[in-house]
Predict the structure.
Amino acid sequence: MDDAGENLDGLAAHDWAGQAGTRWLAQLDRFESMIEPIGKALLAQAAYSASETVVDIGCGGGWTTRQIAAAVGNTGFALGLDISSDLVAAASDRATRAGLANTRFEQGDAAMAMPEEAPFNRLFSRFGSMFFSEPYPAFANLRRMLREGGRLDIAVWAPIDENPWQRSIMGIIKEHIDLPTPQPRAPGPFALGDQDYVIDLLQSAGFSDIKFDAWTGDQRVGGPGSDPESAARFVLDGMHIGDLVRPSGPEVRDAIQRDLVALFERNRDDDGVRMGAKAWLVSART
């Protein structure tokens, strides 16, 4: 996954294994609370049953894996797979403290890893499938993790033009620095926004019965309760966007932060900074 330098939004796998994973860990609870509503919606769509075995791709701090483990019960099993060893360690610790015996976490690149418990009944991923440098073979590997008759449920961001929270942030940054030209379908948060592309990826990998459901709602930037100042710092310190800003120096960063604060003030309510977001909840079968 080597295209991050040429992609406006790109975060390649090796980034998640290093600095990006470390940043996510440092802001883990804020990241988790930001995307929790989408995770809950995808879990509701998946509707796991007792005794199912599930692999959670790009599990991060393991919140979704823990919910899956609870849903499948002691006769089922949930494996959290993530490329960041730091996040895997944190996820394992949280599962242990939660007293979950039917889950395990493994460090590995889902594009090529094959956990020993495979094949699984189900595959789940909340925003963990958009960063493959070679998505066709990667999705073929995801297919190999599943039994015949298995099911995939993934959440991916809809196009950036349909995500005001990200579009507005990037618009402010572009006023201050030159940004690389976005490369369609390059690894990054919005790589799988095109439904036709996702259908082709899944069909080429051997999936069928592909369905899309649109999730629309509020993205609480920095997590619920964040004020505009802390939300702006979160964007620049915790998100990959900060990597684009950092080389321009402190004066440019300060100017961008001021403009972000003003943007977030305009989108503030009693529960923090609220901006519109849209994601696809995708399901398919083997």
Q: What stands out?
A: The two ends are 26 Å apart (CA to CA). The first strand starts at residue 53 and ends at 57. Residues 74 and 101 are 8 Å apart (CA to CA).
